Amino acid sequence: MKYSIHDGPGIRTTVFLKGCPLSCWWCHNPESQEIKEQLMLFPNRCIGCKTCIDVCKHGAIKEVDSMIITNLKECTHCGDCVKECYAEAREMAGKTMTVDEVVAEILKDKDFFQQSNGGITFSGGEPLMQPSFLIALLKEMKNLGIHTTIDTCGFASKKTVEEVSQFADLFLYDLKHMNSDKHEKYTGVPNHKILENLKLLRDINKEVFIRIPIIPGINDNIDDLRDFRDFIRTLPNVKIVNLLPYHKIGQEKYNRLGKPYKILDVEEPTQEEMDFASEVIKTCGVNVKIGG
């Protein structure tokens, strides 16, 4: 959970649920892609005490040339080494919690919600991957009079989207690419289900903010931008589009998880490139904002 002013109106608490059906090449939260808890390594913090080697029951941690090496393929992500690491060079990404535990954490920020017309945003990963848990949380928020927002990629069953929409006040809805083949190449899944669910939210007149990550060389050419614009024109329930410039902040997380980062050669978009994207998309008549 974290405090946020970019995940919906007002001051908000954002709850991140692990697990995502997409594996976007530019994902800045790779630790949220798998639904299980995962070990993250911070080698620069390691003091070489070797306690982690002693407590690892699976032989996944060894000393090699005076360096502590963790074989993440052999690691079971049990967390024993994290509990014993004095230097905090090891952390677990993810924590199993009950609905009541999450609600208790959320309520610590309730005064901020009331003062700013804010609320709670469920993000991820992909919150729709845990529909029963999510709906239980949404119901609790509704009972408490707290504004609810779902930050989603939209890749879920129609039934899940229909059920969640009954309790969500706002959807922050990601559009990655309008070309389904390219969408599948860069995210791992086609976009048909995503677009159909967005049309569903249109048909029930649910409030939606569109979010488009601008990734140079992947979805920012004039044809890509026009395709986004033309589709958004068909969505009268969408009043705001946020263009999110690609950044490399998440790259180090891949190293901590032992995962490859696929777009090392992609540079962050310039202000001129973001302004150009904004000018193209705003011709559909919506309010376009650069950033969250």
Quick structural gist:
The protein is α/β, with parallel strands linked by helices and 292 residues long.
Q: What pattern of helices and strands is seen along the backbone?
A: EEEHEEHEHHEHEHEHHEHEHHE
CATH top level class name of the largest domain? Alpha Beta
Tell me the number of helical segments per DSSP (H or I, 4 or more residues long): 11
How far apart the termini lie comes to: 18 Å
The total of beta strands comes to: 12
- Which homologous superfamily in CATH is the superfamily of the largest domain? Aldolase class I
* Poorly predicted sequence stretches spanning 5 or more consecutive residues: none
How many strands, what sense, and barrel or not for the largest sheet? 8 strands, mixed
CATH names the topology of the largest domain as: TIM Barrel
Percentage of helical residues? 25-40%
Mean pLDDT across residues? 93
Write down the Rg: 21 Å
Provide an overview of this structure.
33% of the residues lie in helices and 21% in strands. It has 292 residues and is of the alpha/beta class. The chain folds into two domains: 2-34 and 95-290, Aldolase class I (TIM Barrel, Alpha-Beta Barrel); 40-93, 2-Layer Sandwich (Alpha-Beta Plaits), CATH 3.30.70. The strands form three sheets. It has an eight-stranded mixed beta sheet with strand order 1-2-7-8-9-10-11-12. The longest helix is centred in the middle third of the chain and has 13 residues, at 131-143. The chain starts with a strand and ends with a strand. The model has no long low-confidence stretch (mean pLDDT 93).
